[in-house]
Amino acid sequence: MKNSLLKIIGIIIVLTVCLIAEVVTMKGQPVAPLAQPAKSEAPAADNPINGNDSGDSGVEKVVDNTAKGDAARGKKLFSTFQPVAGMACNACHRVDSEKRLVGPGLFNVSIRAAHRVDGLSAEAYIRQSIIDPGAYVVDGYQNIMPKTFRKAFTDAQLDDLIAYLTSLK
Hints:
It is a single chain. The protein has about 170 residues and is mainly alpha-helical. Helices cover about 40% and strands about 10% of the residues. It has helices at about 1-25, 70-80, 110-115, 120-130, 150, 155-165, and strands at about 35, 50, 60, 135-140.
């Protein structure tokens, strides 16, 4: 019990430090700028990607998976602790607001995501942001999202999660 309590306190401390770092860096930053390709990050080798982007950014596009998931299952996944990532999505993202927690608020995310990167639908952009969070980093944010969510979710679970996120309006 003592070890569990210490682990929980450690997680709370880490999340608090991340939150403070984000609040400090967001002062004076625009609310919803366009995403910029992260030049130092390469997509993970096991991502479902479909060839190179036509530009010289070095970022590859994900396949625009048109299969629809189940939003109710996605909602549950969003708040379920993922051991491989060390957290749940809701530890860093709000769903009831566009305001930043640690990461961006996800209310209306599908509207913003549809215009972030030319050639990517909202669903494809959200999928890319989950499985390769360094591919496009919005100005004012740091590239701190765990890079292990691709290992945490199956393709079907990603579809469910994306269905949930696109339902947030």
